[in-house]
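FIELD: query
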Amino acid sequence: MKLTSKGRYAVMALVDLARFDNINPVSLRDISLRQGISLDYLEQIFSKLKKNEIVKSIRGTQGGYVLNKSPNEIKLTNIFHAVDEKVKTVQCKKESKKGCNGKATKCITHNLWDELEVHINTFFENKSLKDLLNNNKETRV
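FIELD: result
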């Protein structure tokens, strides 16, 4: 299984945003500095998050981003979907009769990896930004 930096950084940035958006809108520059994520990369990620209505932008000198919903309503699955991240443990499509290795049948351990994928995705469906906020406390820099 591979989760790309896009998915990991989207979650990191949204946890950071959730920590501080009750004070003022949060600038991507601030998130970039605190989390060590490139500003250009954050702009790409937040464009997708905004399009999928996870965040909204506020214009002006005190502008930035705020969450569009409360942290407990935003599941990690929603974030991954918004940034086109798919959590898969097998390369083949579930509905395909062809196997991951290009052969006519699925490999001998296919069902194991398929079951793992279900567990992982269920885990992400049950985790919200609020869960991550409760696990990490930090003050504004």
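FIELD: remark
The chain has a mean pLDDT of 86.
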